[in-house]
Every structure is written in C-alpha cells, then in structure tokens.
C-alpha cells in the first residue's frame, strides 16, 4: 500500500544531520527526497523513502543515541507537525493530548502510529508505538518518536515530568546514560514494544495550558482536512504510483489497485465515483510527461517511449498524435 507522511516532519532529520556535520542535502538526494517539499504546506513524502532516510542517517551518524535529539527545541518545532502539533499543546490533559495524537495522526502520516491502553489495576495509561503499517522502526527513529512524545507532554504540563516507565525494543548501548538523563524515569530495553507508561493521576490532571475552545477549533480544521485528503488522496496517490510503474511497463489497473490496497473492482468503482477511469488517468499522465520529454530535443524518442511504458515507438507515436493532434516530429518542431 502506498503510504505518505507530511514532508515538513523531516525538518527534524535535516537539522539533526546539520548538527552532526553531515550534509543533509546529499542524504536526501541519495534517497530521492526533494528538500524543497518540506517548506510547502501539505506536501508529503512516500513513507518508504522516509524509512530509507533514517537508515542512511544511522549509517552516517556515529552516536547511536542521536534519535533523542528529536526532542530538543532547537531541532524540533510544533509547526513541523502541522496543526496537530499545536492542537496537542492545548489539550485539557496528557491523556487527551495522546488521544488527539492517535485520532488525528493521519494529518501527518497515513500509517497507524500508536494505541492507548488503560490498566486500572496498575493505575496506568500506556501509549504504545504501533507502527504496524511500516517496516520496523530503526533504533534512532524509535528513539525520536518516543522522545518527541515525551517532550510534547512536558510542554503541555509546563513542568518536568517523570513517567512510570519508558520501553524500547532495541538493546542498550554505550550511551544509555542519555536515556536516563532525558526521560528521568525507569528505562527498559529489549522490550516487546516501545511505549510510555504514565500514572493515571498524571495522565488525567487538568493542565494549565488547556484551551478547550481552541482545541475544538483545531479538531474541526483537522477533521475538514482529513475529509478533503480522503477525497483527493486516491487520485494523487494513484498518479504517483502510475509514474513509478511506467518505465517497467507494469502500470496496470491490477498492479496500481493492489499497491493502493484495493481490489481491482473496488479501485475502478472509486475512480468512477470521481468521474474518471484508470485508462483516462493513465493517458493523462502519459500525455503530460510525453510533452515534456518530446519537447527536449536531447531525448531520444525511443527512450521516451520506453520511459512511458510503451513497448514500441510506433505505438507511442500513434498515441501521441491522438493526444495532441500532432506527430512527434511536428510537435518537436513547433516547440
């Protein structure tokens, strides 16, 4: 399934690399992420490439505990997480902040992120990192996620807090002292899941930063955004996947539907509801790309045909004339 995440979130990774004297631009280029998208409101990256980004970071950064840097204000700002970042900060309690994070996480990522469980016997509320839609987080990415949540809870609380326990799935390392220094709580490594365990008293205490009116306003905005995202997301994602499949000739309705997580019939029905068909979508993309490639006189037309998924130049030539009313040579001369 094709999943995405808000591009601006990766400003955290960019700033961490700069602090570690690593050229972030080269790493982003290596994993094929456009840095400019981090500054475009609403722009999103493919999640699989973000996974690659953090793997590359771990190979280049010597400090195995660098993920904890994601909690430091100089590397992370609520604005990186869109309106969700601000909405969490005006929640009435830490429990509500965590509930809001889970409920509206799709604002920043298509992937499931976490779950909340209450243990009344133990008197605890457990936030568990549940990245079931992605490959397992690397150590640094897991550390960054848990540390960011802890930092946000402290900002909400407007005071330093300690939790019942902090759990990580990875093993301890030579810099383990940094975890105790930051969390100021019992730390457990090699745990089955990554989690933060809060006492119910702490989780439900009314916060001085609470602003229910503003929180509800933020919720309305996020709900509206998610509705519009659902309406636009299918076509945007489908187009991106089609572009990725074109050169291999595998841009079929079955392949695209499967990667989106739908059956072929369901995918075609959803496209019909949006007033289009798979063939129309495919031809629209091919025509847009073809015009750019054909205009470039340095591009070999046979290579262009291949990049667009055509087995033969003659087939591409006929399709191009049907789209534009001009032959390949006529279009190239007219431009």
Shape: elongated
Task: Give the overall pLDDT as a whole number.
Answer: 87
What's the CATH architecture name of the largest domain?
Alpha-Beta Complex
Low-confidence stretches: none
The number of helical runs is 15
What count of structural domains?
A: 2
Q: According to CATH, what is the class of the largest domain?
A: Alpha Beta
Spatial separation of the terminal alpha carbons: 39 Å
Output the radius of gyration.
Answer: 24 Å
List the SSEs and their pairings.
Layout: E1 4-6, H1 11-19, H2 24-30, E2 44-46, H3 47-60, H4 82-89, H5 94-103, E3 114-119, E4 124-129, H6 139-157, E5 165-167, H7 177-183, E6 187-188, E7 195-199, H8 200-204, H9 212-245, H10 253-260, H11 264-273, H12 278-295, H13 301-307, H14 313-324, H15 328-334
Helix pairs in contact: 4-5, 4-9, 9-10, 9-12, 10-11, 13-14
Jot down its keywords.
335 residues, alpha+beta, H-NOX domain, Arc Repressor Mutant, subunit A, five-stranded mixed β-sheet, elongated
Question: What this model shows, in words?
Answer:
The chain is of the alpha+beta class and 335 residues long. The protein contains 15 helices and 7 strands. The chain has helices at residues 11-19, 24-30, 47-60, 82-89, 94-103, 139-157, 177-183, 200-204, 212-245, 253-260, 264-273, 278-295, 301-307, 313-324, 328-334, and strands at 4-6, 44-46, 114-119, 124-129, 165-167, 187-188, 195-199. A 5-stranded mixed sheet has the order 3-4-7-5-6. The protein has a two-stranded antiparallel ribbon with strand order 1-2. Strand 3 (114-119) and strand 4 (124-129) form a beta hairpin. The chain is elongated, with a radius of gyration of 24 Å.
């Amino acid at each position: 399934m094709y999943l995405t995440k808000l591009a601006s979130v990766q400003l955290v990774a960019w700033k961490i690399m700069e602090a570690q004297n690593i050229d972030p631009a080269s790493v982003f280029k290596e994993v094929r992420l456009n840095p400019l998208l981090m500054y475009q409101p609403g722009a999103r990256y493919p999640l699989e490439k973000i996974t690659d980004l953090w793997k590359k970071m771990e190979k280049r950064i010597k400090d195995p505990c660098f993920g904890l840097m994601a909690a430091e204000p100089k590397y992370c700002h609520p604005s990186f997480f869109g309106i969700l970042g601000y909405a969490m900060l005006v929640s009435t309690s830490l429990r509500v902040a965590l509930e809001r994070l889970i409920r509206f996480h799709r604002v920043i990522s298509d992937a499931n992120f976490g779950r909340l469980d209450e243990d009344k016997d133990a008197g605890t509320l457990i936030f568990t990192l549940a990245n079931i839609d992605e490959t397992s987080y690397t150590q640094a990415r897991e550390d960054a996620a848990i540390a960011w949540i802890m930092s946000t809870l402290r900002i909400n609380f407007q005071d330093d807090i300690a939790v019942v326990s902090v759990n990580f799935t990875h093993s301890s390392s030579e810099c383990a002292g940094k975890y105790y220094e930051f969390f100021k709580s019992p730390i457990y490594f090699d745990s089955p899941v990554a989690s933060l365990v809060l006492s119910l008293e702490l989780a439900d205490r009314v916060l001085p930063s609470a602003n229910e009116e503003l929180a509800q306003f933020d919720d309305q905005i996020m709900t509206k955004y998610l509705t519009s995202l659902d309406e636009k997301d299918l076509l945007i994602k489908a187009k991106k996947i089609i572009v990725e499949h074109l050169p291999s000739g595998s841009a079929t309705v079955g392949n695209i539907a499967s990667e989106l997580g739908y059956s072929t019939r369901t995918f075609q029905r959803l496209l019909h509801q949006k007033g289009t068909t798979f063939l129309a979508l495919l031809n629209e993309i091919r025509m847009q790309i073809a015009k750019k490639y054909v205009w470039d006189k340095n591009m070999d037309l046979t290579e262009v045909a291949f990049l667009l998924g055509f087995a033969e130049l003659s087939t591409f030539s006929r399709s191009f004339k049907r789209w534009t009313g001009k032959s390949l040579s006529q279009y190239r001369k007219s431009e």
